Amino acid sequence: MSIGRKVAVITGASQGIGAALVEAYLERGYSVVGTSRSIAPSSNPNLLTIAGDIGDPATGRRVVDEALARFGRIDTLVNNAGIFLAAPFADHTADQYAQVLSTNVNGFFFTTQAAIEAMEKQGSGHVVSITTTLVEHPTAKVPSVLASLSKGGIAAASRSLAIEYATRGIRVNTVSPGIIKTPLHPVETHEFLSALHPVGHMGEIEDIVGAILYLENAPFVTGETLHVDGGQYAGF
């Protein structure tokens, strides 16, 4: 157990934004628990990695329990794991629907429930979840009903949680990205994806990391959706 270090739990931590968040929190002196299906074991005493499907209701509870056993506390949960499937609404299959709801909604619900239970006992904590600006500003160029259904639910639930736990020392916020350069987007799609933003380019992983770290250090901010989307929310 690392006495005196704050602890961050990060889902979807094996690549992209999640992996960058792991490094950012470690650099700031946190102990970190990272989870994803394919995350590699860690030899760093301040980094605990846990492989598992976050859509399984048992995984979130296991991640929180192992975090508490190893480090003794949880100060921050970043719900970063998510699936985005762009397809016409009528073309989505039942399996796709189940997959998106499992990862996006189950992953948020059961992990957040377990983490907030631990945070309430210690009298403090912060939950921040990744949503998408498509929830509030859809575009015909990117059919996104499943994203809006799942991530929109997370945004609404986060505001509700922020109010429910406002007097108990727990803050709950969301970050709403535009399209970010991650391994999910092949280089050949970048020109098209860049044009979906008023600023004319995609976001960088560092933009999202910076937004989450801002919220980490903003004790008077809760129930907020921070748009990091190159102007998409303002209109295009």
TrEMBL record:
Classification via InterPro entries: NAD(P)-bd_dom_sf (IPR036291), SDR_fam (IPR002347)
GO molecular function: oxidoreductase activity, acting on the CH-OH group of donors, NAD or NADP as acceptor
GO biological process assignments: fatty acid elongation
Highest taxon of the lineage: Bacteria
Cited Pfam families: adh_short_C2
Family assignment from sequence similarity: Belongs to the short-chain dehydrogenases/reductases (SDR) family.
Protein name: 3-oxoacyl-ACP reductase
Lineage: Bacteria, Pseudomonadati, Pseudomonadota, Alphaproteobacteria, Sphingomonadales
